[in-house]
Design brief:
Elements lengths: L17 E2 L6 E5 L28 H13 L4 E5 L9 H8 L5 E5 L6 H13 L4 E6 L5 H8 L3 H15 L4 E5 L8 H13 L6 E5 L6 H6 L15 H6 L5 E5 L2 E3 L23 E2 L3 H9 L6
Parallel strand pairs: 2-3, 2-8, 3-4, 4-5, 5-6, 6-7
Antiparallel strand pairs: 1-10, 8-9
Helix pairs in contact: 1-2, 3-5
Length: 299
């Protein structure tokens, strides 16, 4: 967590800071847009089965973005959604991306059956570049997780992750700390204990703070007025630590600074990656969460 150089009992004054893109290290691709098989209550872009605000990307759109980013010297790729494994061409997308660099796929795990787990593990074993799968799970019991991700999802998610592990691909579990105790050491130990019980002996965990936008705004409340960044709050180290200093997000609707802001008015930077190489203004309250909590969506 980064120390905040500002009293928080009053609203910040002054303009929002601007941030240059130092180098495009990470490219995110919203391959299934906002379409998902779940409708999680904390989703900051309100994904769900009927949300087609951002549609599926076409295979050629993914190919163009990946090849353009590779020419720019990108270091790694991430697929997210929505639920990436709903896309009928996800395997072709994974294969073409791994020709150019490391890839991580973010999933809720529900659609990972034994055949898909075996295919993903084979990709992991044979790919030229590193291949990773991140599975989202938001509690150590059905009561905790299902209250956020929907009824009966706890066992479905864990079963998908166990299939991956049994096939030879050890997934990363992503936990959004909607239940605040899960951010504490005792909560983290509960995850380690749960995964050990399920036979996952080398657990990999990533904890993320929730963003108070999208569906999460209705569940947990909106940002307060003071939760804004202003000039003078960020030194150079803090600027370089923000993920938007080295990433861009591509969807079927264009290019955005990061994975968080694709549904936010005014965040779209252009049609192509070339359009999105300029500086951004850190004037959204979600930028405050990234700064204060030290959030990065990277693994």
């Amino acid at each position: 967590m980064i120390d905040l150089n500002l009293a928080i009992d009053r609203n910040p004054e002054g303009p929002a800071p601007q941030l240059e893109l130092g180098h495009l290290d990470t490219l995110w691709l919203q391959v299934t847009g906002t379409v998902c098989n779940l409708a999680c209550l904390h989703c900051f872009i309100s994904c769900g089965p009927k949300n087609e605000s951002h549609p599926f990307m076409e295979l050629e759109e993914v190919r163009r973005a990946v090849e353009t980013a590779a020419e720019m010297g990108v270091k790694e790729f991430y697929f997210t959604g929505g639920e990436p494994f709903m896309h009928p061409q996800i395997r072709e997308m994974i294969a073409l991306t791994l020709e150019h660099g490391p890839l991580s796929v973010l999933t809720n795990g529900v659609l990972i059956d034994e055949e898909l787990a075996g295919w993903l593990a084979e990709v992991f074993r044979t790919s030229r570049y590193n291949f990773d799968v991140r599975v989202s799970l938001d509690g150590t019991t059905p009561e905790e997780n299902d209250a956020i991700r929907g009824r009966h999802t706890f066992e479905k998610i864990l079963s998908g992750a166990q299939r991956l592990h049994q096939a030879g691909l050890n997934p990363v579990f992503t936990v959004t700390t909607c239940h605040a105790e899960l951010a504490e050491s005792a909560g983290r130990q509960r995850f380690f204990d749960l995964l050990a019980e399920r036979g996952i002996t080398r657990p990999r965990l990533k904890f993320l703070a929730p963003f108070k936008i999208g569906r999460e705004e209705r569940r947990g409340g909106a940002y307060e007025d003071f939760e804004r960044l202003r000039e003078g709050m960020l030194d150079e180290e803090a600027r370089q630590s923000l993920q938007c200093s080295s990433c861009r997000m591509v969807t079927a609707k264009g290019v955005y600074p990061c994975p968080i802001l694709i549904e936010e008015e005014g965040a779209r930077m252009g049609d192509t990656l070339e359009d999105a190489m300029g500086p951004i203004k850190l004037d959204h309250p979600a930028c405050y969460t990234c700064f204060v909590e030290g959030v990065t969506c990277r693994t």
